[in-house]
Amino acid sequence: MPTDSPFPQLPVSGITIPTTALTTAALSYSREHTSASTVNHCLRSAAFALIFASKIPPYAAADAEAIVLSCILHDLGWAIGDSKALLSSDKRFEVDGADLAREFTRTHSDYDEVRLQEVWDAIALHTTPSIALHKQPVVAATAMGILADFTGPHHPSGLLTVAEYKEVVGAFPRLDFREELPRVMCGLCRDKPATTYDNFVGEFGAELLEGTEGESYRADRDKHNVRKMLLGGLEATKQYE
User: What positions does the domain HD occupy (predicted)?
Assistant: First the structure.
């Protein structure tokens, strides 16, 4: 690894975050558009993803650069300040991140459409492990690494050790990530609520938004309840059958 690498050595974990023109540029891009605690979350996720890839035989040949790229860029949908102009008004944050990452990668690399789609899938599906874990190794390892930053050694795979966890968090400190997460989720519920009703983001809004704002959000979310929509739709179609 070059001595000027932005990625530290992780001897306990035994993995090396690849220092390439693409991963270095991606890190700069993430730092430009997201908060310091989000960047460190993405770097921890990348390290955890590589640890899993090193321990799961089917993932051994996975493209480490693509895994790291996907992890570093996966929360571009949390862009802050003026960078919010990059975001859509009608897409889930995962899709915003996937779209931005695909365009960034297309501009900064020679990835073909298949590899670009893997990066897009890895980011768009990272909050849906029940799907991501059944796709390509890059997609699955990315989802596992991101989840590990929330579960630590209690990851359901049982493959992450306490020593590995401590090393990664020591290299990329949490800063105020625990406090930032609910702020970001509630911000999404305020800024584009329609993208949050059918997924976990809405749980933050329903629980944490207060006063009339919270009451209004919960009422709107209830109107878009998926169970009610499906059963109500079936009932409404009876007249045509």
Answer: 39-131
β-bridge mates for residue 15, sequence order: 10
88: Cβ contacts below 8 Å, ≥ 6 apart? 95, 96, 99, 192
First-last CA distance in the chain: 67
Among 152, 162, 143, which Cα is nearest to 94's? 143
pLDDT in tens, 100-154: 999 999 999 999 999 999 999 999 999 999 999 999 999 999 999 999 999 999 9
∠ at Cα 76 (70, 80), nearest 5°? 155
Residue type, 111: Y
| Strands of 81-235, DSSP E | none
CA distance 120 to 57: 23
Overall fold of domain 21-175: Hypothetical protein af1432 (1.10.3210)
- pTM comes to 0.95
Measured over all CA atoms, what is the biggest interatomic distance in the chain, rounded to whole angstroms?
71
Distance CA 195, CA 36 (A): 25
* Rounded Cα gap, residues 36 and 2, in angstroms: 23
Domain boundaries, the chain: 21-175, 180-240
